[in-house]
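User: Quick sanity check before I run a bigger batch. Here is a single chain. Can you write out its predicted 3D structure?
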Amino acid sequence: MWGRFIFLLLLLAVCSVGPGFFLARKLPWSPAEKLCAALGLSLLVLYLSSFVIFALHLPQSAYFGVSALCLALLALSFRDLTGLFRHRRVRRQIAAFGFLFLWAIGLLSLVRHYSGGLWAGDWIEHYERTLFFLDHQPKDTVFIGVYLLPARPPLMNLVAAHFLAQVGRQYDLYQVVFLFLNLLIVFPCFLIAGAMAPRGGGRLTLIAGALAASPMLLQNVTFTWTKLAAGFYVILAIWLYLRGWRKQDPLRMTLAFVTLSAGLLVHYSVGPYVLFLALHYLIVAFRTRTARWRELVCISLFSVGLLATWLAWSTAVYGPRTTFGSNTTVTDASRVSATDNLVRAGTNLVNTIIPHPFRPEGRRSFEAWFTQRSSFGYLRDYTFLIYQVNLIFVLGSVGGLLALYCLYLSYRSPSVASRRDRSFWSLFVLTLSVVGIAAVSQRDEWGLAHICLQPLVLMGIVLVAATLPTLPPSLRVLALAGYVVDFALGILLHFNAENHIFQLVPGPGGQSMVLNTAGLSSQSAVNWGPRRYAGGSSGVIISSASRRRSRRRSSSSLRLSFTAWSARRWQAAACHAPRRKQPLAAPIVGRQRLTPVARGARPVRIRDGGHDARRPPLGEVLVTPAAREEIGEPREEPFGAGGCGGGCGAQTVSLEGAIERDRDRQWRRGDDRGGVVPDVAAVVRLERAVHVDMANGGRRARPEVLALAHDPDRIARLRVLLQLIIEAVTSDDLVLDRSQAKVGVRPRAPCSGDLGDVLGRGPPGLLALLGLLEGLRLSIG
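Assistant: Done. Predicted structure follows.
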């Protein structure tokens, strides 16, 4: 295992520098610029070569040929490479990167499951995408049960496939590859420090220390997704743009936009930066360029040509509608009107700027989703949703305020050169802060700084660290105290929580269930099961035997377990209760929303519903019971990732039942006679969502017609499923079947409402009145 790890590190060093440095070694640029250009060009070479190998169905031995070519190019440029290493700043940058890499690897070795907030799904989705290119899987493969290939750009997955083809496809090696590629963002951060503060490029120790204490950087660099790698190209493009603008250099200006195109091939969150630099170039810089029309033609041809390597192929294979319309931003925004999109953008902007503890709705949503037994886990989620998604505190506990202060000082600078700079940076910060949040097409109750604003945030961290020696002593002490707080609450606490383990227990029908022995939130527990299927064990070293078993297992189990995640309604919980059937009493119609699990260590089922792995089960959702809800009282749900803000495929209906124990479940009246409201959901394609019931002899839960108690005229009837209260039964076992109950479920059912919304009729006042009268009559009698 260690041999593969060392071989992987050598491959990463050779292939991420060799081809790019061979192309950039003769450029009249500074050594630090050459190093960043070499990294960016090398990743592009690996992307193109891997794409050719995939498209032409070449054998995997071709990847070894590409690596041999990279080594040969590095050998040919050995003299220039030694000259590059003679520069002290380059050596310091590489040493700082090595320190951060070892620090991140050490933290990654603590990760036994991914968790924090509602983050889930992406870490396994990109692994599936990498295996897609590695194994030449069918084009209609669906990732995590929801997304087709064009929903995400492929550059980083193809680059990762290049390395995994040579060292093995184990998930731990995949983690190291993604960590290395994501951490490359520190090189353009070192580079752009000189443009953000006087003598900032020489303060590498301070910058590396600030990055090492940044919860945002370390939590994202150990989470296997692609946003930081896209940020590498964004920050490098901004540097090239500013240098090309000042020096009238058409090569730098052209490469700036080509670099942005490469960033789009990593993650579509680069779009707002492309929009800003393109408008700034056309409105401000274009009229001052010497050979502006030739430069514009070169920018257009090379940028569009690079994007066409992916978009043209995807259009030919999947069609234009799937290629340009399968991304979640496009699909979610197209479902609502322009007015709704504006309202959603404004709400997200407020939620991203104001932390959730200072908003009543944010506090309620947090309590609804993250109530858990572990006090440290509760604190971790509390701080995680501040450090990761809030625009101010994502720079640190005091970093955001210090960054605003530094921007204010630069704005007051009287020099002519800084006047142009402050105009650019002021427009950049304001525009990206608004557009980067508005570009996300989902409403989020806690904030969205982690989607499109990561490059902006890292530049803010670099700004504070680079200007730290020029600040007053009191502010320097405050910054140091802030770094200590960030390290304790954002790093140690987070990775301590991710070091906890859960327990897999056998369930009915051969299913596996996750027992929340760690006492963390249900989101953390759900993340454990698919990690085990991916081959996870303690830390970064992963069992090969379990991985082989997982590959023999049908992939539908893994994909199905993530279906509800990508649909943002993936929560599933179990209810502890006695093993008995409970008849339903007179129904009282209440309005409840889909809510997370209640407090307690409760098992979460990982289901294998027998899906076709190539078709997204769009009509199925996992519905979590509102176990602590009072009768008839609506409950708010969080929006965004994991929420139901965009509309859920199921609608809860509340029925009064004398079930479960009445621990802390009393009616608001305080008369101790109120019952519990179980949730019953309307789910499309129910035949794949209902499981066998242990208390029912191993048979599926069966529907029965229940009349109102003591109702001679049978005025109102509901076809419901008998609620079989057993240990560790998830709420999706209790459903209202559309085909059996003749309930018309609309394609986009609301997340809250009454029974009339589900039935497609008006308010069920008669039914509610009958239920109330029936309950009164029974209580009096």
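Confidence is low (pLDDT under 50) at residues 535-772.

User: Great, the batch can go ahead then.
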